[in-house]
Every structure is written in C-alpha cells, then in structure tokens.
C-alpha cells in the first residue's frame, strides 16, 4: 500500500489577521499556514521554520486576512431580471415579476447562477447559498445547472431546494403555472438531497429543504418539508416575517403570526434558518433563541423593498444565530456580500439602538462565522483556526480607499469595498487581483445578458 502523499503547504506572512474565533483573536502582523485544504497553524510574527513541501509563499504586507465570507440567502435566477419593478414593495414586486420568473429554463438559470456566483466570489464570498424555488414544467434540470455553476466556479455551496404549491387560485401570489404539486415538490426535493448532498467535513455541495414562503406554500408542504429535512438529516430554510403584509396575511389565513405558524408546523429549530425576519416582536425573538433557529439578515434588500429594519442587535443579544444574505439580485442589484457588512452596520444604526447597534467586528462576524452557524458549518468554516478548512480572503488595505484608516477591520467594514488580492476555497485560489481564476467573467456577462434578453422577449409574448 502506497504511503499517503505529503501535505503541500501554502504560507501567508506579514498580514494583519482577523481570525473571528471565539475570542476575536487578531494579529497586527501574523502568518497563516495551509496544508492541503486545511489551516495547519496561525499566529503572530513569522511562520514556523522548517516547514516541508512549501509550494507557495505569499508576502501579504498591506493586507488583512479574514475568513471567507458566507452568504446565507440568495436567489441566483434573479440575476437576469435585475432593474425591474424598482419602486415596489415586496408583494407588488412579486406580483409584477412572478409571470416573468415562471418562464425560466435551464439555460437561463445556469447563466444567471454563473453571474450571481461570479459577482459574489470576486468580492470575497467563499461559501455561497441559493434558495431556488421556481421550477416550471419542462424547464430542464434547474438544480443540476445551479450546482454545476457553483462547482465550476470553485466555491463551497448550499442549494436550498425551494418549492411553491399555493398559487393565485389558492389565495397565494404566484401564477397557477408557476407552482408544483405538493407531492411533486416533496419528491423532487428528496431526489435532489439524495443525488447531491454531501455530509462530509470538507463538503463542497450541500442541500437544504426550503419551501418558499407562507404566501406561496400550503401548510402541508411546510409541515411535510420539515419532516423530510429531519428524516434526511439536512437543514431547512424559508422566508419569514419579511413585511407587515406577510404578518397580516398569516393572521388572516392561519389565525397567528408567522413565527407561531412556523413553530406549529415544526419549522423552527437548530436545523432551520429563516430569511429576513424584519418584523419580529419580543416573543418571536425569544422563540428563535429558545429553538436556536437562525436568521439570514439581508439589509440592502430589506431597504430596496421598504420592508423595514430587522432587530439584529436584539437577536444577537438573545443568542439567535445571525448571518448575512445578498438576497436575490432583483431586489439587491449589486449582488455583492462584502457591501452588506457596511450596510448591515449602517442600517441597524438607524434603528432603536442607534450608534450602539453594531460595530465593525460584529458586522464582520455576521458575514463570516454567523453565516457558518446558520448553514450548520461552524465546525469547519467561518473562522481562521487550526483544523478548519482553508477558506480565506486577502483584502488590500494599503491603497487609496483604505490607507488612512489605521484599524484594518474598520477599514474593510466602514470603508469602500476593499479590493480582493486573493481568495482561497478549500486551499485553492479562485480570485487574484479582483478577477476570477476559474471562469471567464466577460463570457459570463455576455451569456447572462443574452439570456436576460431572451427571457424578456418570452415574457413579453405572454
């Protein structure tokens, strides 16, 4: 039997480092040693002497090294419907766009996924997530297209296999031709989990069970989705408490608010995370804390759709796991997560806690370790610690936009979007000097534009 190959090492030196570990350990000048796909050691000063099989050394002078950013909520397909319904609230926005979304196909979805992933990856995202819930009849293998795009990009990825079974005829928002049957949605979700989900420590692809939202799914789909997720041992995701209209909808239809409704169906728990959670009262936050249900905070999208300001400081104080989300790019056209660090901090300071709402390090934690928590991966990503996976970013902070901000973490959160000199996923570099190494950005832009134009033509024909 052949001996296992010796680990190949990458050494990063002379960097400011924010580990985002439990103690928020930071080094003004430190090192990071990667062995294959894991972090072997990290600390202050120079790397240890005598390291074997060092294949690369990086002098990171003028850079801050952080864990890679973790996106916890997105809708990739919306990349090809950006810039539409720009002055609508959530319900009106959905009504305006559902007829177009219901005409997507595999080719469109793949191009949109590539665009969404590329925008995030070149901005420091190393773990992406997509909540895809529109599966028109005869549209092709949409889940396979999305997963294939993520694999090609080289990012770690969770597909939240979404579903809708409550259409307009049943009192929901989606058009009748845009939904699945309850049985069909559950069967297709189970098939996706069994085909693609990887439960291993260094998994690159995982699947979650993700019925869409209270106003587009039946109670049966929500309840059976929770049971399915737990039977298969995967996480669950949905939208919750996003708007005052949703609150009113739930009270009128179910006789209770969204959080109580979710709990009544089994859709709260440490294996669940919810997108938005803007309109949460004290009882709702206590229920999330008691059950360890996670939250994907999407500040830019919440502002774009005039949904409101989520009570993130109160959630964190109560012990609710909170990460950051881009949300779909039809409600956050920039499609970038690193700008959400800044927006989360600024928007939350407009709320009740004012300047004490969030600080720079709390914002960075939301975008890294907090995201790992809500995706159920805090044991292997989200902080820079020996034994964890080598997902990390080198942010350039000695240039025009940042050189006069003395504190590195303040620089990347309060300052302009920092350039990404290098981004690594699983020990492999995927970005160099703000450009993707694994795919061609110009080709992605061209193909996505063509698919956006094709979808617009089809939608116009009705």
Can you describe what's shown?
The protein has 462 residues and is an alpha/beta fold. It is built from 14 helices and 17 strands. The protein has helices spanning 90-101, 106-121, 142-153, 182-196, 219-232, 244-254, 258-264, 282-291, 299-304, 312-318, 338-348, 360-374, 408-414, 441-461, and strands spanning 9-18, 26-35, 38-44, 54-59, 63-67, 69-70, 125-132, 156-163, 205-211, 236-240, 272-276, 294-297, 322-324, 392-396, 420-425, 428-432, 435-436. The strands form three sheets. Strands 1, 2, 3, 4, 5, 14, 15, 16 and 17 form a nine-stranded mixed β-sheet that branches. A four-stranded parallel β-sheet has the order 6-7-8-9. α4 (182-196) links the parallel β8 (156-163) and β9 (205-211). α2 (106-121) packs parallel to α3 (142-153), α4 packs parallel to α5 and α11 crosses α12. The longest helix has 21 residues, at 441-461. It is globular and about 70 Å long. The protein starts with 8 loop residues before the first strand and ends with a helix. The model has no long low-confidence stretch (mean pLDDT 96).
Q: What is the element layout, followed by pairings?
A:
Blueprint: E1 9-18, E2 26-35, E3 38-44, E4 54-59, E5 63-67, E6 69-70, H1 90-101, H2 106-121, E7 125-132, H3 142-153, E8 156-163, H4 182-196, E9 205-211, H5 219-232, E10 236-240, H6 244-254, H7 258-264, E11 272-276, H8 282-291, E12 294-297, H9 299-304, H10 312-318, E13 322-324, H11 338-348, H12 360-374, E14 392-396, H13 408-414, E15 420-425, E16 428-432, E17 435-436, H14 441-461
Parallel strand pairs: 1-4, 1-5, 6-7, 7-8, 8-9, 10-11, 11-12, 12-13
Antiparallel strand pairs: 1-2, 2-3, 5-14, 14-15, 15-16, 16-17
Helix pairs in contact: 2-3, 2-14, 4-5, 11-12, 12-13
Protein name: 8-oxoguanine deaminase
InterPro entries: Amidohydro-rel (IPR006680), Metal-dep_hydrolase_composite (IPR011059), Metal_Hydrolase (IPR032466), MTA/SAH_deaminase (IPR050287)
Domain Amidohydrolase-related: 64-429
